[in-house]
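Hey everyone, long-time lurker, first post.

I ran two proteins through the pipeline my lab uses and got sequence/structure pairs for each. Pasting them in order. The first:
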Amino acid sequence: MKIAIPHWQGRVSPVFDVAENLLVVELDDGGAERSRVQAGLRAESPHHRASQLAETGAEVLICGAISWPLEMALTAHGVRVIGQTCGNIEEVLAAFVSGRLSDGAFAMPGCCGRRRRGQGRGRGRCRGGRHGPPC
């Protein structure tokens, strides 16, 4: 499985739509790292950016904020999007491998829960004014 994480200064890039650096990590069936490559993202339109990411072979994208059109374009390319994620890229990758990525510690500020595909477009909106933990 290949996991893609846009990054900036060692952390998950806060907005995927404008991220320029992408880490692509290949994991074996046991979750051990097989390979790691850096890729550049230069495309600007959602369709072209989704195509560029899909060309890396990534099956999962772990990212911060992402626009709805870009998320839908990635989904159309067969990429599972795990958005609204923040933190050190090594810690985020380890949390994904161990199944702990949904812990609140990796939620972007202002996000009460993990937004998953099929749960609507309520990005960043919290019921009752509650906010998630800081990154």
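...and the second, right after it:
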Amino acid sequence: MTESRDISIQVPVLTRVEGEGALELDIHQGRIEALRLRIYEPPRLFEKFLEGRAPDEVIDMVARICGICPAAYQMTAVQALEALFGVRVDPWVAAMRRVFYCAEWL
């Protein structure tokens, strides 16, 4: 027998996210009826100070966007530059990047 219950979760302040946000989740009879993620911070437009920069400068500069998660920003910048220049990495490199990224959570 499966248990069916109603759950309502409200997280008025999300921590460990850049800016401010909230989460609301409503489950009725085991099904998600509503899921709302609200981000209150306006865009910070970091891309403007990256315009015209050399690729290696971009990778260093984005690491300073957040003091908690520099690797996430660096990996995103690297992947964007690779897409721009048509670079494809082999599976080992992709796996090692994932290890590097996940290590940031520790």
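Reply from user beta_strand_b:
Welcome! Quick read of the second one: Residues 56 and 78 are 9 Å apart (CA to CA). Residues 70-85 form the longest helix (16 residues).
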